[in-house]
Amino acid sequence: MKAKIFRKPLFFSALLFLVVLVLTVVGLQVWAGPTAQDERVNVESADPNAPPSPELAAITVDARVVPVRQATLSFQAAGMVAQVLVTEGQAVTAGQRLLALDAARERTAVSQAEATLRQAQARYDQLRAGPQPQEVEQMRAQLAAAQARLDRLRMASAPGQLAAAEAALDAAQANLQQVLDGPSQQTLIAAQAELANAEAALRQAQAAYDRVKWRNDVGALPESAALQQATNNYEAARARWLDLQQGPTQAEVDAAVAQVQQAQARVDELKAALSPDLAAAEAEVRQFQASLELLEAGPTPEELAVAQAEVAAATAALQQALVALGRTELRAPFDGTVARLDINPGEQVNGGEPVLQLADLSRWEVRTEDLTEFEVVGIRVGAPVQITFDALPGLRLPGQVVRIRPIGADQRGDIVYTAVIALLESDDRLLWNMTAVVNLAPGQE
């Protein structure tokens, strides 16, 4: 019994020692951290493309409130400001006139261009319409009156002689023109028909002659005489056809020119003996005759083309003048509010010089100012953000990253990027360039 009492405490003591030893070893392993094998497994299983751990700290950057749509406006041309039609803070609509330069010179140029275009268009329309009946009748009446005066002077000066000389000149000129033009189509057709008839008659005469040529007295027969006559007619028709085909000879042209020169000399000789009034009357008749012919002929295609080109040139000049006039005005490119106005009437401005700032103050966005290159790599388009405002304590608005400018800027030695954030909610107290603080969670989308 004593032995049992002695061994039982020893057994429990040994068991307690083993438990304490195991707990000690386990505690040392936990305190020492993972083994090298465990670390290697963790490193090998890590995904290099996995998003950052949610435990990473949020990014807080400074930002400013700006309108979603804004524009700095300037005149395209230089000049003196004549009108300031808006004030700072005024709401305007797209196309509304904001400022105007002195445009007296440009308006004059537009008026001149409009008048030139009207003249060119009227001339083109008149040419296209052709001569009016009353115009033709008036020209004919003037020609008849001039011709009557000429006839009276001729009768008083040298009755019959000048008229006969002029008639001879007209006949000589008509003959020269006929020689130069050659035979007409009708003449050629008639000559060809005459040759064909002569050839047919010759074949008939030859056939009749062939039927009696075996007779000894064939030369005395009428068939022989008929063949001879048909042959002569055929040769004459053929010669005439060939002559017409070849056209006039140089001798024929020279002879016709000589006739014209001789007739013209006779007319000039008779006119030299007439009074100056007769020469003036003849010139007047020629002038009215030429004008009437031009009027009745109507415009040529070349004249129409020139008139149309004048209309096009005048239209282009007017468009150019209107563009120059438009450059003296400044109009709103979109609906918005005049945020800044830096000009007064009477001041001189240069083309391209900023004079007015316009913005749509109904929609705001936030742009970061100090987002570093180390922070921007963890930001994604579409990421949600929270925005607070220094001037509006307690106001917190949700937003979303809509774009990140791909080029950074040097800010006192640091490269910073601009993230543009759309406000998902707004507040009427927001103003342009208010400072804000943006809280972003890296890697979220």
Mind explaining what this structure looks like?
It comes from Litorilinea aerophila. Residues 103-215, 253-298 form a coiled coil. With 445 residues, the protein is α+β, with helices and mostly antiparallel strands. Among the domains are: 56-70 and 358-444, Efflux pump adaptor protein, beta barrel domain (Elongation Factor Tu (Ef-tu), domain 3); 160-277. It has eleven helices and 17 strands.
Give the biggest sheet: 6 strands, antiparallel, barrel
Strand-residue proportion? 15-25%
End-to-end Cα distance, whole Å, is: 78 Å
Strand order of the largest sheet: 1-10-16-13-12-17
Shape: elongated
Please give the number of β-strands: 17
Give the proportion of residues in helices: 40-55%
Strand-pairing-aware structural class = alpha+beta
Radius of gyration: 56 Å
Q: How many H/I helical runs?
A: 11
User: Mean pLDDT score, rounded?
Assistant: 82
- Low-pLDDT parts are 1-14, 25-55
Question: Descriptors for this entry?
Answer:
445 residues, alpha+beta, Elongation Factor Tu (Ef-tu), domain 3, 11 helices, 54% helix, 20% strand, elongated, disordered N terminus, coiled coil, HlyD family efflux transporter periplasmic adaptor subunit, UPF0194_transport
